[in-house]
Amino acid sequence: MRFTKFGLTTLRDTPSEAEIVSHQLMLRAGLIRRLASGLFTWMPMGLRILRKVETIIREEMNKAGALELLMPAVQPAELWQESGRWDKYGHLLLRMKDRHEREYCFGPTHEEVITDIARRELRSYKQLPVNFYQIQTKFRDEIRPRFGVMRAREFSMKDAYSFHVDQASLEEGYQVMHEAYTAIFNRLGLEFRVVDADSGEIGGSRSQEFHVLADSGEDAIAWSDDDDFASNVETAATLRPNGKPAAPTLQMERISTPNTRTIEDLTTLLKVNSSQTLKTLIVEGDDQPVALILRGDHELNAIKAARLEGVAAPLTMADPAAIRMATGCEPGFVGPIGLDIPIYFDHATSAMSDFVCGANEIDTHLTGVNFGRDIDTPQTVDIRNVIEGDPSPGGKGTLSIARGIEVGHIFQLGTAYSAAMNATVQDQDGKDVVMAMGCYGIGVTRIIGAAIEQNHDERGIIWPEPLAPFDVVLIPINMHRSDTLREAAEVLYTELQERGLEVLFDDRDARPGVKFADAELIGIPHRLVISDRGLEAGELEYRHRRDDDSRVMKRDDALNLLFGSTLKLQSADS
Ligand code: ATP
Ligand code: MG
Fold first, then answer.
1. 208-236, pLDDT tens digit by residue?
2. Residues 348, 278: contact at Cβ < 8 Å?
3. I need a surface site. Which of 27, 89, 180, 221 has the fewest CB within 10 A?
4. Does the beta carbon of 447 lie inside 6 Å of ligand 1?
């Protein structure tokens, strides 16, 4: 591709609308352009990358025996009413009406449509197992679209759905997808981890997420250094501490703490560690507010808490008026002693002694509080997020925590949809059985943002080679002043393409500095510079995007190096 024919505009300055580096670089390198909130155009440069991601996904899905199809993006409301999700899915669902006032949605996912296909097409166990997939545009009306294509409203997903005669076959099919996903993310050249996950609105039993590791990731993931435990922090269990708390050394005292409403204010005033304090959170309940009590330095886990009996789901913090009404006390001074609403204590509180908590009276706290003496020793539950260094719930080792970007999610749905929509086949004995189902998503467009989060420097993107829009950028120096150079550059451009490389030929009449800066911004893995001086000596200058310096090499040596490394890459892929 000739730069002058590619219609590419790069931006020098960081666009102010972009919060994170991948979004900034995607705009600056001309990969995408924003149309409206959460809606993006894939420009020619960006689309090249998107197509590469799709190709790798397709090849691995096909290899795993999945069948590609393409379902409509627009789906009739009746199917969603049948599955019960028309009401449950809420505001994420973009609903619309046609000229006959019939209701539809723009598909955020396709369980209903594929289950409808399955119940019409599949009659016998002999047709199972089967796995259908598509690569298609989804729409989810996200509350906060952000980070460019990473949390967009319209985005591309690869979604696959498998159908099975029983749970055992589903588990096998799920394992096949686990392996296919592992192959896909390996081929994409990304550093990733697979973790146990919450099944969310989709429902079902087992589910795992594939996360690209990056500091900007919206999720926290935890894994053990000594067993195979790996989980999204959303669902990672915490253990009840072993043994009893230390014996009390202090008397309980009522102390004045004016305007001290937060744990931070409290620890500053009393000069204690936040792990010595109790934090009492009041949340909405089914019929009355509920108190959730944690160690002051721990964070509440909303998913775990919403599953407790009597607690409203999704978890909603009570507003100040409701707190006053339920506790008779100002927010910030609530504590468990004498509190007359349902209370849940987190496991970690059971190891505490001589702690500080609210006194249920304005501007007052209690210090030196102990279980078994000042308040009954409570039953405890798991309602906090795991933290670095916690013992592994798997039984061995301790947990490490990192940030991740969810790029894939695989589920064993079981019969959640097939039962609701009556999708059955005849088994060996001629009996009708409800099919077991799995579903498997990959955020095709999100992968590109995630890849950049993981692979960039202060000058721009550093593409993993399988994703790069071009293999090599060819930069002639001052070609517009030298016919000899122009000819040599054209010959080289043709040769590189004939040997199978995707080449961006920077044929602009621009300063070398501008060309170098753009090549680095776009992140093309290999760079060849050709100049009059080099030509005389029969030399080219080669540099890999990850190298610190360029190397002046004999023309053949440079080309051998280039073909060598790109060939190696191609054979590793096949
Ligand atoms: P998230 O938790 O990030 O909202 P999700 O769990 O709701 O995602 P799934 O239903 O599991 O998403 O969808 C499959 C994949 O689609 C996700 O793993 C993710 O990579 C991608 N995806 C989901 N929502 C978006 C979005 N708003 N923009 C881009 N990609 C998305
Ligand atoms: Mg998910």
1. 999 999 999 999 999 999 999 999 999 99
2. no
3. 89
4. no
